[in-house]
Protein backbone atom coordinates (compact mmCIF):
# COMPACT_ATOMS: atom_id res chain seq x y z
CA UNK A 1 0.00 0.00 0.00
CA UNK A 2 1.29 3.49 -0.84
CA UNK A 3 0.94 5.78 2.19
CA UNK A 4 -0.70 9.12 1.38
CA UNK A 5 -2.23 7.84 -1.88
CA UNK A 6 -6.04 7.58 -1.81
CA UNK A 7 -7.21 3.99 -2.04
CA UNK A 8 -9.68 5.01 -4.77
CA UNK A 9 -9.34 8.02 -7.06
CA UNK A 10 -12.02 8.33 -9.73
CA UNK A 11 -11.81 11.12 -12.30
CA UNK A 12 -14.34 11.95 -15.02
CA UNK A 13 -15.62 8.37 -15.07
CA UNK A 14 -18.03 7.74 -17.92
CA UNK A 15 -19.67 4.44 -18.63
CA UNK A 16 -21.81 3.67 -21.68
CA UNK A 17 -23.49 0.41 -22.69
CA UNK A 18 -24.32 -1.29 -25.92
CA UNK A 19 -23.82 -0.50 -29.58
CA UNK A 20 -25.55 2.85 -29.27
CA UNK A 21 -23.22 3.76 -26.39
CA UNK A 22 -25.97 4.90 -24.06
CA UNK A 23 -24.12 6.79 -21.33
CA UNK A 24 -25.21 5.94 -17.79
CA UNK A 25 -22.38 7.61 -15.84
CA UNK A 26 -21.65 11.14 -16.97
CA UNK A 27 -18.28 12.08 -15.51
CA UNK A 28 -18.17 10.89 -11.91
CA UNK A 29 -15.38 12.18 -9.66
CA UNK A 30 -14.56 11.09 -6.13
CA UNK A 31 -11.74 9.95 -3.92
CA UNK A 32 -11.78 7.59 -1.01
CA UNK A 33 -8.97 7.86 1.50
CA UNK A 34 -7.50 4.87 3.25
CA UNK A 35 -9.68 3.69 6.12
CA UNK A 36 -12.51 6.02 5.09
CA UNK A 37 -16.14 4.92 4.70
CA UNK A 38 -18.24 6.49 2.01
CA UNK A 39 -21.94 5.79 1.57
CA UNK A 40 -23.30 5.98 -1.95
CA UNK A 41 -27.02 6.68 -2.10
CA UNK A 42 -29.46 7.38 -4.89
CA UNK A 43 -32.58 5.89 -6.33
CA UNK A 44 -32.79 2.84 -8.54
CA UNK A 45 -30.97 3.32 -11.83
CA UNK A 46 -28.91 6.32 -10.65
CA UNK A 47 -25.63 4.52 -11.31
CA UNK A 48 -24.53 3.25 -7.90
CA UNK A 49 -23.87 -0.35 -8.92
CA UNK A 50 -22.23 0.64 -12.19
CA UNK A 51 -19.85 2.88 -10.21
CA UNK A 52 -19.02 0.04 -7.82
CA UNK A 53 -18.54 -2.53 -10.58
CA UNK A 54 -16.31 -0.12 -12.51
CA UNK A 55 -14.09 0.29 -9.44
CA UNK A 56 -13.92 -3.51 -9.08
CA UNK A 57 -13.22 -3.92 -12.80
CA UNK A 58 -16.29 -6.14 -13.06
CA UNK A 59 -18.45 -4.33 -15.61
CA UNK A 60 -20.02 -6.33 -18.44
CA UNK A 61 -18.00 -6.53 -21.65
CA UNK A 62 -20.63 -4.40 -23.38
CA UNK A 63 -19.55 -1.43 -21.26
CA UNK A 64 -17.36 1.33 -22.66
CA UNK A 65 -15.40 2.99 -19.87
CA UNK A 66 -13.50 6.27 -20.14
CA UNK A 67 -11.87 8.51 -17.56
CA UNK A 68 -9.64 7.28 -14.79
CA UNK A 69 -9.94 4.91 -11.83
CA UNK A 70 -6.83 4.59 -9.72
CA UNK A 71 -6.69 1.91 -7.05
CA UNK A 72 -3.90 2.63 -4.61
CA UNK A 73 -2.32 4.74 -7.35
CA UNK A 74 -2.67 2.14 -10.10
CA UNK A 75 -4.77 2.92 -13.17
CA UNK A 76 -7.33 0.22 -13.97
CA UNK A 77 -9.30 1.74 -16.85
CA UNK A 78 -8.20 -0.24 -19.88
CA UNK A 79 -5.58 -2.09 -17.81
CA UNK A 80 -5.03 -5.79 -18.62
CA UNK A 81 -7.48 -8.16 -16.89
CA UNK A 82 -4.72 -9.85 -14.90
CA UNK A 83 -3.69 -6.51 -13.30
CA UNK A 84 -7.24 -5.81 -12.14
CA UNK A 85 -7.74 -9.43 -11.03
CA UNK A 86 -4.63 -9.21 -8.85
CA UNK A 87 -5.84 -5.96 -7.25
CA UNK A 88 -9.20 -7.60 -6.63
CA UNK A 89 -7.57 -10.38 -4.72
CA UNK A 90 -4.90 -8.43 -2.89
CA UNK A 91 -6.43 -5.04 -2.19
CA UNK A 92 -10.18 -5.02 -2.68
CA UNK A 93 -13.20 -7.23 -2.24
CA UNK A 94 -16.92 -6.92 -2.77
CA UNK A 95 -20.08 -7.98 -0.94
CA UNK A 96 -23.28 -8.21 -2.98
CA UNK A 97 -26.89 -8.10 -1.88
CA UNK A 98 -27.56 -11.79 -2.33
CA UNK A 99 -25.07 -14.03 -0.49
CA UNK A 100 -25.79 -17.03 -2.73
CA UNK A 101 -24.21 -15.18 -5.68
CA UNK A 102 -20.89 -15.41 -3.82
CA UNK A 103 -21.29 -18.92 -2.38
CA UNK A 104 -20.98 -22.29 -4.08
CA UNK A 105 -24.01 -24.34 -2.98
CA UNK A 106 -22.11 -27.62 -3.34
CA UNK A 107 -19.19 -26.81 -1.04
CA UNK A 108 -18.99 -26.53 2.74
CA UNK A 109 -18.60 -22.88 3.70
CA UNK A 110 -15.40 -23.43 5.70
CA UNK A 111 -13.68 -24.71 2.59
CA UNK A 112 -14.96 -21.78 0.56
CA UNK A 113 -13.55 -19.25 3.04
CA UNK A 114 -10.29 -21.23 3.20
CA UNK A 115 -9.93 -21.17 -0.59
CA UNK A 116 -10.13 -17.38 -0.58
CA UNK A 117 -7.43 -17.21 2.09
CA UNK A 118 -5.21 -19.76 0.33
CA UNK A 119 -5.38 -17.91 -2.99
CA UNK A 120 -3.40 -15.07 -1.45
CA UNK A 121 -1.15 -16.78 1.05
CA UNK A 122 2.24 -18.37 0.55
CA UNK A 123 2.18 -22.10 -0.18
CA UNK A 124 4.13 -23.04 2.95
CA UNK A 125 1.48 -21.45 5.17
CA UNK A 126 -1.55 -23.12 3.64
CA UNK A 127 -1.92 -25.57 6.54
CA UNK A 128 -2.83 -22.55 8.71
CA UNK A 129 -6.02 -21.99 6.72
CA UNK A 130 -8.33 -23.71 9.21
CA UNK A 131 -7.31 -21.46 12.11
CA UNK A 132 -7.68 -18.33 10.00
CA UNK A 133 -11.11 -19.44 8.81
CA UNK A 134 -12.42 -20.23 12.30
CA UNK A 135 -11.03 -16.95 13.63
CA UNK A 136 -12.67 -14.97 10.82
CA UNK A 137 -16.02 -16.74 11.24
CA UNK A 138 -15.93 -15.81 14.91
CA UNK A 139 -15.04 -12.20 14.12
CA UNK A 140 -18.11 -11.79 11.95
CA UNK A 141 -20.21 -12.83 14.91
CA UNK A 142 -20.99 -16.44 14.04
CA UNK A 143 -21.28 -18.62 17.11
CA UNK A 144 -19.86 -22.14 16.97
CA UNK A 145 -17.51 -21.49 14.01
CA UNK A 146 -16.52 -25.19 13.63
CA UNK A 147 -20.16 -26.15 13.07
CA UNK A 148 -20.69 -23.27 10.61
CA UNK A 149 -17.52 -24.25 8.72
CA UNK A 150 -18.87 -27.80 8.29
CA UNK A 151 -22.21 -26.54 6.91
CA UNK A 152 -23.33 -26.17 3.34
CA UNK A 153 -24.80 -22.76 2.44
CA UNK A 154 -28.38 -24.07 2.37
CA UNK A 155 -28.02 -25.22 5.99
CA UNK A 156 -27.49 -21.63 7.12
CA UNK A 157 -29.90 -18.73 7.54
CA UNK A 158 -29.73 -15.68 5.24
CA UNK A 159 -27.99 -13.64 7.94
CA UNK A 160 -25.45 -16.42 8.61
CA UNK A 161 -24.74 -16.73 4.89
CA UNK A 162 -24.13 -13.00 4.56
CA UNK A 163 -21.74 -13.15 7.53
CA UNK A 164 -19.86 -15.96 5.80
CA UNK A 165 -19.62 -13.73 2.72
CA UNK A 166 -18.30 -10.91 4.92
CA UNK A 167 -15.71 -13.34 6.30
CA UNK A 168 -14.66 -14.15 2.72
CA UNK A 169 -14.49 -10.46 1.85
CA UNK A 170 -12.37 -9.61 4.89
CA UNK A 171 -10.12 -12.63 5.44
CA UNK A 172 -7.29 -11.29 3.28
CA UNK A 173 -7.39 -7.96 5.10
CA UNK A 174 -8.28 -5.89 2.05
CA UNK A 175 -7.69 -2.13 1.95
CA UNK A 176 -11.05 -1.60 0.29
CA UNK A 177 -14.39 -3.38 0.71
CA UNK A 178 -17.24 -2.48 -1.61
CA UNK A 179 -20.68 -3.38 -0.30
CA UNK A 180 -23.63 -3.21 -2.70
CA UNK A 181 -26.85 -3.31 -0.66
CA UNK A 182 -25.35 -6.00 1.59
CA UNK A 183 -28.28 -6.19 3.99
CA UNK A 184 -31.25 -5.44 1.75
CA UNK A 185 -32.17 -9.13 1.44
CA UNK A 186 -32.20 -9.60 5.23
CA UNK A 187 -34.99 -8.92 7.68
CA UNK A 188 -34.64 -5.82 9.82
CA UNK A 189 -33.27 -7.25 13.06
CA UNK A 190 -30.76 -9.41 11.21
CA UNK A 191 -29.87 -6.40 9.06
CA UNK A 192 -28.99 -4.32 12.13
CA UNK A 193 -26.79 -7.11 13.50
CA UNK A 194 -24.96 -7.67 10.23
CA UNK A 195 -24.32 -3.92 9.91
CA UNK A 196 -22.84 -3.85 13.42
CA UNK A 197 -20.60 -6.78 12.54
CA UNK A 198 -19.52 -5.08 9.32
CA UNK A 199 -18.78 -1.89 11.23
CA UNK A 200 -16.59 -3.71 13.76
CA UNK A 201 -14.88 -5.92 11.20
CA UNK A 202 -13.99 -2.94 8.98
CA UNK A 203 -12.50 -1.23 12.02
CA UNK A 204 -10.53 -4.34 12.97
CA UNK A 205 -9.11 -4.74 9.46
CA UNK A 206 -8.72 -0.96 8.93
CA UNK A 207 -10.34 -1.23 5.50
CA UNK A 208 -11.91 1.61 3.54
CA UNK A 209 -15.49 1.00 2.46
CA UNK A 210 -17.69 2.14 -0.38
CA UNK A 211 -21.16 1.29 0.84
CA UNK A 212 -24.08 1.36 -1.58
CA UNK A 213 -27.66 1.61 -0.48
CA UNK A 214 -30.83 3.41 -1.30
CA UNK A 215 -31.59 3.55 2.41
CA UNK A 216 -30.21 6.56 4.29
CA UNK A 217 -30.68 4.91 7.66
CA UNK A 218 -28.57 1.95 6.65
CA UNK A 219 -25.81 4.11 5.17
CA UNK A 220 -25.64 6.31 8.24
CA UNK A 221 -25.12 3.22 10.40
CA UNK A 222 -21.80 2.48 8.73
CA UNK A 223 -20.52 5.66 7.05
CA UNK A 224 -19.39 9.05 8.28
CA UNK A 225 -19.60 10.47 4.74
CA UNK A 226 -22.26 10.24 2.08
CA UNK A 227 -22.25 10.84 -1.67
CA UNK A 228 -25.56 11.29 -3.48
CA UNK A 229 -26.09 10.15 -7.07
CA UNK A 230 -28.82 11.21 -9.44
CA UNK A 231 -29.21 10.02 -13.04
CA UNK A 232 -25.55 9.08 -13.48
CA UNK A 233 -24.05 12.14 -11.75
CA UNK A 234 -22.75 12.77 -8.25
CA UNK A 235 -24.80 15.72 -7.04
CA UNK A 236 -23.53 16.10 -3.50
CA UNK A 237 -21.00 14.79 -1.03
CA UNK A 238 -20.68 15.64 2.65
CA UNK A 239 -20.42 14.25 6.12
CA UNK A 240 -23.42 12.26 7.22
CA UNK A 241 -24.25 15.05 9.66
CA UNK A 242 -24.05 17.73 6.98
CA UNK A 243 -26.16 15.76 4.54
CA UNK A 244 -28.85 15.31 7.17
CA UNK A 245 -28.79 18.80 8.69
CA UNK A 246 -27.74 21.03 5.79
CA UNK A 247 -28.27 19.34 2.42
CA UNK A 248 -27.23 21.60 -0.47
CA UNK A 249 -28.66 20.00 -3.58
CA UNK A 250 -32.40 20.16 -4.23
CA UNK A 251 -32.55 16.41 -4.75
CA UNK A 252 -30.87 15.72 -1.41
CA UNK A 253 -33.17 18.21 0.31
CA UNK A 254 -36.13 16.30 -1.05
CA UNK A 255 -34.63 13.00 0.01
CA UNK A 256 -34.10 14.24 3.56
CA UNK A 257 -37.48 15.95 3.78
CA UNK A 258 -39.34 12.83 2.72
CA UNK A 259 -37.24 10.72 5.04
CA UNK A 260 -39.04 12.17 8.05
CA UNK A 261 -35.83 13.17 9.73
CA UNK A 262 -37.78 15.57 11.90
CA UNK A 263 -38.34 12.53 14.05
CA UNK A 264 -34.66 12.02 14.82
CA UNK A 265 -31.92 13.88 16.54
CA UNK A 266 -29.34 14.83 13.95
CA UNK A 267 -26.30 12.65 14.39
CA UNK A 268 -23.58 10.77 12.64
CA UNK A 269 -25.15 7.42 13.23
CA UNK A 270 -28.81 6.66 13.32
CA UNK A 271 -30.66 3.59 14.50
CA UNK A 272 -31.77 1.26 11.74
CA UNK A 273 -35.52 0.90 12.01
CA UNK A 274 -37.53 -0.52 9.14
CA UNK A 275 -40.18 2.11 8.64
CA UNK A 276 -38.04 4.94 9.89
CA UNK A 277 -37.39 6.11 6.38
CA UNK A 278 -39.49 5.85 3.30
CA UNK A 279 -37.41 4.71 0.41
CA UNK A 280 -36.26 6.07 -2.91
CA UNK A 281 -38.29 9.26 -3.06
CA UNK A 282 -37.37 12.56 -4.68
N1 LIG B 1 -25.03 -4.44 -18.20
C1 LIG B 1 -25.77 -3.36 -18.50
N2 LIG B 1 -26.18 -3.13 -19.75
C2 LIG B 1 -26.94 -2.05 -20.07
N3 LIG B 1 -27.33 -1.12 -19.17
C3 LIG B 1 -26.95 -1.29 -17.90
C4 LIG B 1 -26.16 -2.41 -17.49
N4 LIG B 1 -25.94 -2.32 -16.16
C5 LIG B 1 -26.57 -1.19 -15.76
N5 LIG B 1 -27.17 -0.57 -16.80
C6 LIG B 1 -27.93 0.69 -16.75
O1 LIG B 1 -27.16 1.66 -16.07
C7 LIG B 1 -28.00 2.51 -15.29
C8 LIG B 1 -27.48 2.55 -13.85
O2 LIG B 1 -27.68 1.25 -13.28
P1 LIG B 1 -27.20 0.85 -11.82
O3 LIG B 1 -27.39 -0.63 -11.70
O4 LIG B 1 -25.84 1.39 -11.57
O5 LIG B 1 -28.23 1.61 -10.90
P2 LIG B 1 -28.34 1.58 -9.31
O6 LIG B 1 -28.29 3.00 -8.85
O7 LIG B 1 -27.33 0.66 -8.74
O8 LIG B 1 -29.80 1.01 -9.12
P3 LIG B 1 -30.37 -0.11 -8.10
O9 LIG B 1 -30.53 0.59 -6.78
O10 LIG B 1 -31.68 -0.49 -8.70
O11 LIG B 1 -29.39 -1.23 -8.06
C9 LIG B 1 -29.40 2.00 -15.42
O12 LIG B 1 -30.06 2.75 -16.42
C10 LIG B 1 -29.19 0.57 -15.91
O13 LIG B 1 -30.28 0.15 -16.72
How would you portray this structure in words?
This protein is of the alpha/beta class and 282 residues long. The protein has 10 helices and 10 strands. The strands form 2 sheets. A 6-stranded mixed beta sheet has the order 6-7-8-3-9-10, sandwiched between helices. It has a 4-stranded antiparallel beta sheet with strand order 2-1-4-5, covered by helices on one side. The radius of gyration is 19 Å and the shape is globular. It starts with 7 loop residues before the first strand and ends in a 24-residue tail after the last helix. Mean pLDDT is 86; it is low at 260-282. Adenosine-5'-triphosphate is lined by residues 17-18, 24, 42, 44-50, 60, 62, 214. It is found in: Cell membrane.
Poorly predicted runs: 260-282
The global form is: globular
Number of helices: 10
| Protein structure class | alpha/beta
- The overall average pLDDT, rounded, is 86
Compute the separation of the termini in Å. 40 Å
Q: What fraction strand?
A: 15-25%
Helix content: 25-40%
Query: In sequence order, what are the helices and strands, one letter per element?
Result: EEEHEEHEHHHHEHEHEEHH
Features of this protein?
282 residues, alpha/beta, six-stranded mixed sheet, four-stranded antiparallel sheet, 10 helices, 23% strand, globular, disordered C terminus, binds adenosine-5'-triphosphate, P-loop_NTPase, ATP-binding
Amino acid sequence: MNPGTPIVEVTDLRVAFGRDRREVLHGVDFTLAKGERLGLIGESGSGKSVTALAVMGLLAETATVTGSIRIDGQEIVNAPDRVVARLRGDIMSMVFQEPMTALDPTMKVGRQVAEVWQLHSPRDRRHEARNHVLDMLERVGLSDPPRIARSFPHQLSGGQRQRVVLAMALINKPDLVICDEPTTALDVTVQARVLRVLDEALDAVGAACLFISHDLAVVSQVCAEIMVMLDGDVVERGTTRQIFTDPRHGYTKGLIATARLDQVEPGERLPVVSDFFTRGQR
